[in-house]
Amino acid sequence: MRRDNLYQSPGGHTFLIPVDEGFKQTTRSSLVDNKVIDGHVIPNNVIFTAAAQIEVPQTTAAFEDNLKVTASFFKQKDGKMYVKSNTIVGDEKHPTGVVLAEIVKANIPVRNGVVHLIHRPLMIIDSTVTQFLQLAV
């Protein structure tokens, strides 16, 4: 999608890269676009999980005039770390809502920041609240 410059930009950034489920071809694969890719980068802020401020929203590269997406980290009682994207202001292709992804491999240092591998893509909302509640019952 020609977003190489985002991942090669100098400075210190946090990159959230989906693996596992993120590489499977599903109906959600067609929803990945430049803005979704931008939503996986926290620019100018290197965040290692041990020092991450829990539940503090960080602006992503997808935080702009017409789209506002933040990401925050939190830890479960069992010690697993998660990242949560929150699309605060969406558009026709990117609905508002929250997506949760487990960090499967954290704190991989790279020349311009840190990479966290996550189990699924952020910003792509799979179900409505009604569908989620029906599955939960």
From TrEMBL:
InterPro entries: FAS1_dom_sf, FAS1_domain. Residues 1-122 form the FAS1 domain. It comes from the Eukaryota. Coiled coil: none annotated. This is (Mediterranean fruit fly) hypothetical protein.
